[in-house]
Amino acid sequence: DTAVSQTPKYLVTQMGNDKSIKCEQNLGHDTMYWYKQDSKKFLKIMFSYNNKELIINETVPNRFSPKSPDKAHLNLHINSLELGDSAVYFCASSQDLGFPTDTQYFGPGTRLTVL
Amino acid sequence: DQQVKQNSPSLSVQEGRISILNCDYTNSMFDYFLWYKKYPAEGPTFLISISSIKDKNEDGRFTVFLNKSAKHLSLHIVPSQPGDSAVYFCAASASGGSNYKLTFGKGTLLTVNP
């Protein structure tokens, strides 16, 4: 039983396309996140949602739009893909508003390659 | 602006010996620190954490030490096992605001040789 799942695992696409990555958690958590791990290996937070409400938006370009249809799902839609969007995207969840003591559980990641 | 730094990209140790992974931070507002472990093709998994009110936290073979004055923490694994081979991320957060977020380092690849 996968706690945090992401689809697809790999995504290869052309510049300019629009793509979505889906994330689901079955842990009953209230908070979900998207992280980006770029070529320099830094894992950086992009967004967090608590009960479908946007809590953190880390100055991510407008081309990235998270959508949370319910608290178990947080999808990431990317418009007009650019070469620099190539990265591994991780979804995560935690029980509450991301208090430091709330463990974040990560999905397996989606490797996005923009050609 | 790297607020969390892991200056050793890799570390290799023999099975049974101690592994010491280091992490430095620059933001004095950070007051909670975590270590995550990541295997290839998997997401990071939480390993151990420490609050700034402590200088040591131990969980089985894993111990994290915090030196606030030096803004330095380290993860000790004793004894190291081949299954410990993974990338270890140091992360930090500041509890002063209303939105807690983790700031990660670049990770250190630990290889434990049998």
Give the number of DSSP strands of chain B. 11
The secondary-structure element order of chain A is: EEEEEEEEEEE
Strand portion of chain B, in percent? over 45%
Distance linking N and C termini of chain A: 34 Å
Taking the alpha carbons of the first and last residues of chain B, their distance comes to 38 Å
Most extensive chain contact? A-B, 26 and 25 residues
Assign a percent range to the helix content of chain B: under 10%
**Tally of contiguous helical segments of chain B:** 0
Instruction: Please write the string of helix (H) and strand (E) elements of chain B.
Output: EEEEEEEEEEE
Number of helices of chain A: 0
The structure class of chain B reads mainly beta
How is this structure best described in words?
- Chain A is mainly beta.
- Helix content of chain A is 0%, strand content 55%.
- The termini of chain A are far apart.
- Chain B is mainly beta and 114 residues long.
- Chain B is 0% helix and 53% strand.
- Chain B is built from no helices and eleven strands.
- Chain B has strands at residues 4-5, 10-14, 19-25, 32-38, 45-51, 56-59, 62-67, 72-77, 86-93, 103-104, 108-113.
- In chain B, the strands form two sheets. In chain B, strands 2, 4, 5, 9, 10 and 11 form a six-stranded mixed beta sheet that branches.
- In chain B, strand 4 (32-38) and strand 5 (45-51) form a beta hairpin.
- Chain B is globular and about 45 Å long.
- The mean pLDDT of chain B is 94.
- The chains are: A mainly beta (115), B mainly beta (114).
- Chains A and B meet through strand 5 and strand 10 of A and strand 4 and strand 5 of B.
Summarize the structure.
The complex is a heterodimer of chains A (115) and B (114). Chain A has 115 residues and is mostly beta strands. Helix content of chain A is 0%, strand content 55%.
